Each structure stands twice: as structure tokens, then as C-alpha cells.
Amino acid sequence: MSLEPVVLFFVLGLAAGLLRSDLKIPGSIYDALSIYLLLAIGLKGGVKLAEQATPGMLLDGVLIIGAAILIPLVAFPILRYLGKLKRADAASIAAHYGSVSVVTFSIGVAFLAQAAQEYEGYLIVFLVLLEVPALVIGVMLARYGAGKVRWGRMLHEVFFGKSIFLLLGGLIIGYVAGPEGIQPLDKVFFDLFKGALAIFLLEMGLVAAGRLADLRAHGLFLIGFGIVMPVVSASLGTVMGWALDLSVGGTMLLAALYASASYIAAPAAMRIAVPEANPGLSIGAALGVTFPFNILIGIPLYYWMAQTIHQTGA
Amino acid sequence: MSLEPVVLFFVLGLAAGLLRSDLKIPGSIYDALSIYLLLAIGLKGGVKLAEQATPGMLLDGVLIIGAAILIPLVAFPILRYLGKLKRADAASIAAHYGSVSVVTFSIGVAFLAQAAQEYEGYLIVFLVLLEVPALVIGVMLARYGAGKVRWGRMLHEVFFGKSIFLLLGGLIIGYVAGPEGIQPLDKVFFDLFKGALAIFLLEMGLVAAGRLADLRAHGLFLIGFGIVMPVVSASLGTVMGWALDLSVGGTMLLAALYASASYIAAPAAMRIAVPEANPGLSIGAALGVTFPFNILIGIPLYYWMAQTIHQTGA
Amino acid sequence: MSLEPVVLFFVLGLAAGLLRSDLKIPGSIYDALSIYLLLAIGLKGGVKLAEQATPGMLLDGVLIIGAAILIPLVAFPILRYLGKLKRADAASIAAHYGSVSVVTFSIGVAFLAQAAQEYEGYLIVFLVLLEVPALVIGVMLARYGAGKVRWGRMLHEVFFGKSIFLLLGGLIIGYVAGPEGIQPLDKVFFDLFKGALAIFLLEMGLVAAGRLADLRAHGLFLIGFGIVMPVVSASLGTVMGWALDLSVGGTMLLAALYASASYIAAPAAMRIAVPEANPGLSIGAALGVTFPFNILIGIPLYYWMAQTIHQTGA
Amino acid sequence: MPEQNQRLLTIVCESMLESFLQEELPRLGASGYTVTDARGAGRHGRRGGAWTKESNIKFDIVCDAEVAQRVVEHINREYKQHYALVMYSTDATMHCV
Amino acid sequence: MPEQNQRLLTIVCESMLESFLQEELPRLGASGYTVTDARGAGRHGRRGGAWTKESNIKFDIVCDAEVAQRVVEHINREYKQHYALVMYSTDATMHCV
Amino acid sequence: MPEQNQRLLTIVCESMLESFLQEELPRLGASGYTVTDARGAGRHGRRGGAWTKESNIKFDIVCDAEVAQRVVEHINREYKQHYALVMYSTDATMHCV
Ligand SMILES: Nc1ncnc2c1ncn2[C@@H]1O[C@H](COP(=O)(O)O)[C@@H](O)[C@H]1O
Ligand SMILES: Nc1ncnc2c1ncn2[C@@H]1O[C@H](COP(=O)(O)O)[C@@H](O)[C@H]1O
Ligand SMILES: Nc1ncnc2c1ncn2[C@@H]1O[C@H](COP(=O)(O)O)[C@@H](O)[C@H]1O
Ligand code: NA
Ligand code: NA
Ligand code: NA
Questions:
Q1: N or C: which end of chain F has fewer CB within 10 A?
Q2: Rounded CA gap, E82 and C165, in Å?
């Protein structure tokens, strides 16, 4: 249950940011790496789907999405009444936590590979499916019926924004081409994945270091929320995974999905649909607290939870 | 004769552009990928040349170039009198179609690899050799003796522009270092080629989507030209390949070379030497019509043509 | 003792620059490649250190650093009194030559791999350790007690500037994770190293071509210095390597380290601490003369020197 | 050489507004605009540009005073309140053939 | 602190003109210039910057009115007709030591 | 729509000065600034931008005349002598809500 080495690159980036190193990853490299990671994950998911898809998954999918909808609905009142945040801020943060993080998921997959654990590859599909409901709920919580919403612009941003679009595009290409079709691309999209993830995490560390400053201004509540909320969500994911008869690896991944908070698709969508929400708060909590928590402590913890529930339940 | 999976990335990029996704490949990544692809193809050609070069090729080369010169000379009157385009535009488009596309050629090579077909590797040299005559003819057609031409600037652009320069540089390095010398670079320049091509095609799809708008303004003639012209050129290439006793694979590649239209070197050269030509027309036809046609339909078609002529001829 | 093929990429870049090709490597790609190379070298060093570290190295380290301090102290009077340069310029150039070049070192490693020669991997640590003393001496020579120095800013730049920071970060991650921990990252950080180095050298050639113009303005002295100084430093390195009982490969690498001149960390530090020094002179000599000399002629020469001293000494 | 007295209006804002302004500026009467990538600082703190979410863009629009006025009012109404954004303008001469 | 009254002349054009202007501006009397990468829209449609062939650059040149005039005339003569290009200028003060 | 008469001060300099100016400008009274990457040429020759060591940055600062004066003096004192750097300014109107 030791630390994944790629996580050390996140720590290095964090250190660079906090020590004010002049290390900077150019914006275009950040963009290129995220395009690569999204495509690669999508392709992997598509290939797995081509191999594993069964009609039974459909029901599982509905249940997994249904349970996930609870997350923003639980987060919102906590943020609004316990945290005394403005309605827009509470709704926006709830949407971030209801949504998911591709990188957290990837580190979960890397962790399982190191632990030589199998998992249900088609879970990658939920990286796409869990995004939309959480964002729609977030907007509805912010507006509560009143106030004009740029639904058109926002839904266009969600569906055709680069993260969902590339994940989905990769899924389709992977599914259509199948394992042998994709094989000549393996050298780039699979073999280099871990190294690219390491460099991306270096950049994430740099960005997270900048986000911590935002948080300092807004007190302890958000930091506490950023640590407790993922554990709550992960518990829900663990129970769901076990109830749906996923493997230990799959259970852990579902917990990690629920626990993760979006910092790519959600910020863009919220900025359009709920512009009065302060992005410093939501990105600060998601990227400055929850992301490091999840990759440093959360994933080993969720693995232990998954093992425990499977042993106890059996 | 199924679709090459990398071509799906082009379709994905096209979809992103047409659906107005916010997906954008940073300009610097586009530049880096094209530098990589040009160098990699040059290196491959140089290595092949070191292995295969014979004096007999020289005559073949002269004949291949001689026949290729026919292409702009046929295209020009069609564009000028049938299409009623201005002299400058007709000449510039003729130059684009007389010149060649590195990416189309690469997809041809990938297609052959998937079909487990051999080909004459030294054909890569014609990526360099076919560029210059077409561009010079294009300028002469535009000027027809009259009007000042910035020959110096243009020829400098052609020979020292990045596409010819890197292809040639790669050819020389590959030739000098030979297969064993290049071997430590294989992991980057050969193994990653297909994946890099996939990402480049994603970007090409995005760019092509933008070009379609240009075309819409200029009617059906150019679209028809962009489909018929490559088939005509490919037929010439097929006959030449068969007459010169190339393999089926080599015949198909020569057809693809003839059929392809340049959208890197030619636009830059024409912008300098024939600035009054509208680049929207030439790039629109080359990139918006002919490139997709070639990679989606043309290459399988040219392969069938090559097989047929070799079976019938034998 | 033939030319390393990667060096041909440097020559290609140099040719592009001198022939005014429009080939340009985007700034962000240059940054990304240098981040990659620094991290990769650091990781490699860290892994080697985890395998080889012994307490005896500590004494070796002190001696190697002690001898290296002689280099700027010898260079300064030559530049000041023979070259008649201004004090600030002489001091700044001395600091560049006392410091080290990561890329020269990497080409030395590639040369040894091609020659199938072993070397002491922990020497990578000296890429970090040799930087600081030379820069501090350079500043002291420039100021000679008088004049205000921005020590704080400069030392922060040295220690937290990206080159030292990434080398050190890579070293620590490599050391902590060890060979098996790093293994999933090998595909990116080790397998691609040589190809990435080739592309980086292409860019170095382009930059070096630009630097030659600076030099032309300042006469022959600096060109001579840029060739003689590395040979002198390499001789010192050869003797040290032999005296410390390094292998032939290790001796050559130490010679190359001593002979190399910094063009990443040193220019940044000198610009801050000794701003009145003309960066055209120091970068011109280091990058326009010494770097090409070292990779084209120096490294084979230092290898021969290392072999000779080991044969003669034995 | 004919010349035209115009305003040069500059808008610096969050980069996510690019696609919106691209659509809206021509509708407000601007005959053209130029965009560059930027970073900076202001009332909304440092926007370092390292990361899409905190990078800026700069629109330069040469137009007559009336169009400038219309653009300023549109942006004040639609975006100014909730987005990181500044606008400033100077007199400028457009050089035409 | 000595100051100089000058013109700030800005040229936005297709990026392929960069190397030409780099050579010509000093010959026309400009003591310096600054270039940034740009994208935009105008009479020649959208130039999105994604692709070298449709990206722009922006030259800023601080110079006296006479040099500005000379540059404007040169560019109008050599490039304006066939290339995507606009030029505008404002009064500017150069701050020298 | 309230407007403010201000100066638009532009500083083009070696990119290594970015972190220094970032710290110093707010202390000199600037309420904000915008930075873009640039290349160019001037008294210190061509600075092509290909390489960190020879790339420029451009600071745009909208501020009142007094702050502009203070910034110009600070930079003349601290950096002008040894670094590639030019400063120029124009009148500008800041558009506020
Ligand atoms: N006084 C100023 N001068 C120049 N640019 C500014 C100024 N204030 C703000 N900006 C730019 O406008 C962006 C948004 O400003 P703000 O909404 O004040 O945070 C900043 O990130 C800067 O790039
Ligand atoms: N009114 C304008 N204001 C600012 N920039 C403009 C304007 N018109 C054109 N441009 C810029 O100049 C480039 C070429 O203009 P055009 O030749 O009109 O297409 C455009 O792509 C824009 O970047
Ligand atoms: N006259 C000018 N107009 C516009 N930018 C200039 C001018 N002179 C210099 N620059 C810019 O300022 C940088 C430094 O100038 P210098 O210190 O004169 O070399 C140059 O690299 C240019 O980017
Ligand atoms: Na979640
Ligand atoms: Na052709
Ligand atoms: Na040295």
C-alpha cells in the first residue's frame, strides 16, 4: 500500500510552487498533455468496452449514476448552512464534487496495476456519464427556479468542451477499432501513459500550490470540507461497488470516482452558467485540498475500504 | 481494405470543428508534431536509401518527375477555363496539386503496413523531389512571362522552408548514419510515428473543418475538382508505377503521391510568389476536399487500382 | 570513435540557422524538452545512486569540487589580462566555464553507450554540485568585495531555478523510488531520452547559429578561449578521474563535465547578480564555440585522453 | 494616404470569454479585432496564465467612437460584474490605402 | 527624465510577413520594434491562429512621425493590396534615461 | 458610465525581469498590469524569442500619471542601464462600471 512513484512528481511540483521556483510548464504543454491523457483514457475504455460490454451493465450504470446524484445534494446544504457560503458558491462547489477527476481515476488505475489487482475496465465510461448530472444539479441549486440560466451555452460547453468530447471520441474510436485496430497506437497511447501522467502531475502540483493561497483567505471550513467530503463520497462508492458485485479493484475505482472532484470540465461549465460564483473557492477546494488528499491518502484508504467490505461481506 | 484507425482521429477532429467544440491544439504543438513527422519520414527514407540505392533509380526518378510535371499543366486549363478562376488562382491551385502531401503519403505507408504489403522505401525521396518543379511551374503559369516575380525569396522559401529542409536533413542523417546508427533513435522516430500521426490528424481535422467554410463561398466547382483531380493524377501514377516495375505497394504509393495536394510548402511559396492568389481557394480545396478524400476513399481505391493493373498487366 | 548520430541533429540545426531557413522550434517545446531532459537525467542519477552509493564517495566528491574551483580561478586572469575584457565580463565568462552543461554530459553518456563502456553513474550528482561554487566565485570575482550584490535573489535563482531544481528533484525521486519504482516510467524517461536529445540538439544548433553573430563582433580571442579552455579543464578532469580511480568511462565523463560550459543556469544567475556583464559574450563563447567544440571534437578527444592515461598509468 | 480618426479599445479579460466576444463584436459593429494571449493581475488577484482557467486574453479593436461606446456598454452589462476584466481606450489613426 | 514625443505605430498582419518586415523596418529608419503572436478577424475573415497559415503577428514600432509615415507608405505599396493587414497609430511618449 | 483619464504605460524588456516587476509594480501603486510574451529588436540587437534567454515580455499598465512617473523612475534607476528595455506611454481612458 506504498506510495505510487508518479505521486512524487505532484509533490515536486507543489514544492516548486511553494518555494517560488521559476519552474513553469508552458500552457501549450499543459494543453497537449491533457488532450493526450483524455484521448488515451478514452481509447483504453473503448477497447475494454469492446471486450466486456454486456446488457447487464446498463442497469448497473443507472444505479451508479443515481447514487452519484446524492453527492451534490448532500454537499450543498453542508456548504450553504454549515459553511455559510453564498448560494451560488455552495451550488458551484457541490457541482465540482459531484463531478469527477480524470487524473485521480488514472492514479487509481496505476495504483491497482502496481498492486496487481484486476478491475472492470468499462468503469472508464463513468468518467463521461457522471459529469453531466452533477453539473445540471449544480446549476439548478444555484438558480432554484429563479434567474436566467445560459443553459444552451452551458450544455454546449459540457458536451462539446474538450474533456467530454475527447473522452467520448476516444471511447468511440477504441470501441470501433477494437484491440487489434488500436494496437499500432499502443506505443504512444498506452506505453507512454504513466510517464505523461508524471509530467502532468508535476504541473498539477505547480497549479495546486497557487490555489492554496486562494484558500488561505477563506478559512478552515473549506479545507475540512475538502477532506471529509471525499471520504463520505468514497464510502457511498464502496458500498455501491460491493452491492453491484464489482471486484475489489472496481470497487476501489468507483469509490475514487465518487470521491474525486472535477477541476477541468466543472470550472468551465460553472463559469458560464453561474458566473457569480467565486471560482477561487471551488477550484481551491477541489485542486488545492481534495486532489492532493485523494492521491496521497485517499486512494490507499479507499483500497483498504474495498478490501475490507469484500472480506467482511463475504 | 478497411479503414486505417488513425483516420478516425481525422474524423474526430473534423467533428470537433463542425460541432464548434472548444477543442484546440496549441499552435506550438502543431509545429512540433510537423517537425517530428518530417524528420521521422526523412530518417526512414534515408535509411531505406542507404540499403536500397542503385544507379538504375536515377532514370526512374527522372521519369517520375517528368510525368508529375503533367499534373499542374493539366490542372491549370481546367481551373482557368472550366472553373473560370482568375489566372493567379488557377496557377496557384495547379501548383498545390502538382506538389505533394507528406501526411497523405504517411497514411499510405500505414495502410500498406496494415495490409502487410512491401513497398520501395526510396519513394520517400520523391516527397522532396516532386515539390520544386510543381511550384516553379505554378509561378510561371501565373506570370506567363509578364510581371515581376520574387524568385529569390520564393526559391529560398522552398528550399530552406522547414518542410523540404527537414525532409532533406532527415534523409541525409538517415543515409549517413545507416540503420545501426539510427537504431538508438528508433524508439522516438519510428515507434511513436503512428501515434503522433494520429494526434496530427486530429488537428488536421480541426483545420479542415475551418477550411470548409471558405469553400462554401466558392461553389461546387472546386469541390468537384478536389475529388476528380486526385483520381486523374492517381491513374497517371498507377500507370507509371506499373511501367517502372514497382511493386503493388510502391505503385499505390506513387499514385497517392501524385494524387496528394500540398498544404504546407505550397501555400507558403505561393503566398510569396503569387500573393494576389486567394489562399482560401487553394488551401480550401487541398485541405478541405482532397486531403479527406484521399485518406478516406482515395488510398483504398488507389490500392485496388495498383492490384488490378498488376494482375491485368501480368 | 566515430561521430554520435545525435550530433548530426546539431549540425542540421546549425545549418538551418546559418542558411536562414524558416525552421523554428517553438519556445514552449524548447522549455518542455529541457524540463524532460533535466528530469530524466536526475531520475537516472537517483536510480544509480540508490544502487551504488558508498560513504567513500563523499571524499571523492569534495576533491572533485575542490579541483573544479580552480577552473574559474584560472579562466578569470586569462580573460581579464590576456583578453583585456572588462572585469564584469571576465568574471561572468569564468563562472560559465566553471559551471557545467547537462547536454554535453548527456552526449558523453551516449558516446560511452555506443562504445559499450561502463561509467560511474553517480557522477550525475556533480551536474548539481559543480554549478553553485562556480557561480559564487564568478560573482565574487566581479565584485571583489566592492559593490552591492543581490545575493538573495541570485542564490534563490541558482537553487530554485528550474535546472538545479529539476535535476535535484529527479535525483530524489529516483533515489526514493529505486529501480523497480521507476520502472513503469522507463518507457518515457529512459527509452525516449536519445530521441528527445536529438530534437533538443536541433534547437541548440539553431540557437548556436544566432550566437555566432554576437561573437563575430568580438574578435578571435573569445573563439580561441572557447576552444583552449575546455581542453585545459578536461586535462584537469582526466588527471582527477585517474587519481580517484574512476573507470575509463567515468574519467572521460569527469573531463567532459569540467570542460563543459553552462548555458542554462549560469546565464540566468549572472544576469541577476552581475547585470553589467554582456550576456552576448558569455553565451556566445559557451554556446557558439565551446558547446559545438565539445560535442564534435572534445568528447572523442577526452575519451582518447582517458584511455591513454589509464593505459600509461597502469 | 487617407486616414481615419478612430478609437483603439482594448479589453483584457478571462480567456473563456474569447468565443463569446468573437461572436458579439461583429454584431456590435466592429469591423475587425485582434486577440493575443496574456496574463496579469488586478482586482481578481494574479492570473498567471500557466493554466487555462487562469489565463487572460487581450482584444484590440480599432473602431469609431460610437462602436467603442456600444461595445463598452455591452460588456459592462453582460460580463463586467462577474468576470475578471478591464477596458481602456485611446485615440488612434487608422492608416488605409 | 528626458522624454520624446513619438508615434506608436501598430501593424497587424499575416505571420508570414514577419521575416520581411524584420529586414525592412530598420532600413526604413525604425530604431526598434516589438513583435507578438496574434489572431483575429477583419476583411479577410477569421484568422484563428491555430495554424501557421492563418495566424497573425503584431508589430509595435515607436518612432518619430516621419519614420511612421515612411513605414506606412512602404507597407501600403508592397503588401497592403494582397495580404491580410491593418495599420494604426497613436501619439506616444518614449521615456528615456 | 464613469470614465477615468489615465496613462497607458508599456514596458518591453527581457523576460527574466518578469518576476521582479510582478513584485514591484503593486508596491509602486499600480492597481494591475497585463503581460504578453514578445520578441523584437532594439539597441541590444535582435531578441528572437526562440530561447528563454533572448525573449522579451511586454507589460501594459493603466494607471494615473503620478504612478506612471514613479514606475518610470524606478525602472530607470534599477534596470534601464544594464537590461534590454524600452518604456513608452500614451493617454488612455479607463472604462469602469
Ligand atoms: N491597471 C491595469 N492595467 C493593465 N491591465 C490590468 C489592470 N488591471 C487589470 N488588468 C488586467 O485585467 C485582468 C483582469 O482584471 P481584474 O478584473 O481587475 O482582476 C488582469 O488579470 C490584468 O491582466
Ligand atoms: N478593426 C480592427 N481592429 C483591430 N484589429 C483588426 C481590425 N481589422 C483587422 N484587424 C486585424 O488585422 C488582421 C488582418 O485584417 P484584414 O486584412 O482586415 O483581414 C485581422 O486578422 C485582425 O487581426
Ligand atoms: N523603437 C522601438 N519600438 C518598439 N519596441 C522597441 C523599440 N526599441 C526597442 N524595442 C523593444 O524593446 C526591446 C529591448 O530594447 P533595446 O534595449 O533597445 O534592445 C527590444 O528587443 C524590442 O522588443
Ligand atoms: Na465526485
Ligand atoms: Na500531387
Ligand atoms: Na566546466
A1: N
A2: 50
3-state helix, strand, coil in chain C (%, to 5): 80, 0, 20
CB-count burial class (<10 Å; 0-12, 13-18, 19+) for B2 = exposed
Q: What ipTM did this prediction achieve?
A: 0.93
Identify the residue whose C-alpha is closest to ligand 3 atom 4: E33
Q: Are D50 and A207 a contacting pair at CB < 8 A?
A: yes
Residue type present at position A309: I
- A148 forms beta bridges with none
Beta bridge partners of B121: none
By Cβ distance, the residue of B20, B113, B191 closest to A187 is: B191
Question: Do C and F share at least 3 CB pairs under 8 Å?
Answer: yes
Contacts of C259 (CB under 8 A, 6+ apart): C104, C230, C231, C233, C234, C237, C290, C294, C298, C302
Q: What pLDDT digit, counting tens, does each position of E29-84 carry? A: 999 999 999 999 999 988 886 666 789 999 999 999 999 999 999 999 999 999 99
- Find out whether the beta carbon of D12 lies less than 6 Å from any atom of ligand 1: yes
The residue-averaged pLDDT of A216-239 equals: 92
What pLDDT is attached to residue E24? 97
Rounded to the nearest angstrom, the distance between the alpha carbon of A29 and the centre of ligand 4 is: 26
Residue D64 to residue E65: CA distance in whole angstroms: 22
Tens of pLDDT along A246-293? 999 999 999 999 999 998 888 888 888 899 999 889 988 999 999 999
Distance of CA E88 to the CA centre of its chain: 8
Contact B27 E52 (CB under 8 A): yes
> What residue ranges of chain B have pLDDT lower than 70?
1-3, 145-147, 217-218, 314
pLDDT value of position A154: 77
H or E element, residue A41: helix A27-52
Q: List, as one string, the DSSP characters of D16-80.
A: GGHHHHHHHHHHTT-S-EEEEEEEEEETTEEE-SSSGGG-EEEEEEEE-HHHHHHHHHHHIIIII
Give the Cα separation of E42 and D30 in Å (integer): 9
Please identify which residue in the block is written with the cell numbers 516527397.
B127
Q: Which of C48, C59, C42, C112 is nearest to C245 (CA)?
A: C59
CB A290 within 8 A of CB A212: no
| Number of Cβ atoms within 10 Å of the Cβ of D2 | 7
> Which residue has cell 522516438?
B188
Q: Which residue has the cell 522579451?
A: F56
pTM over 0.80: yes
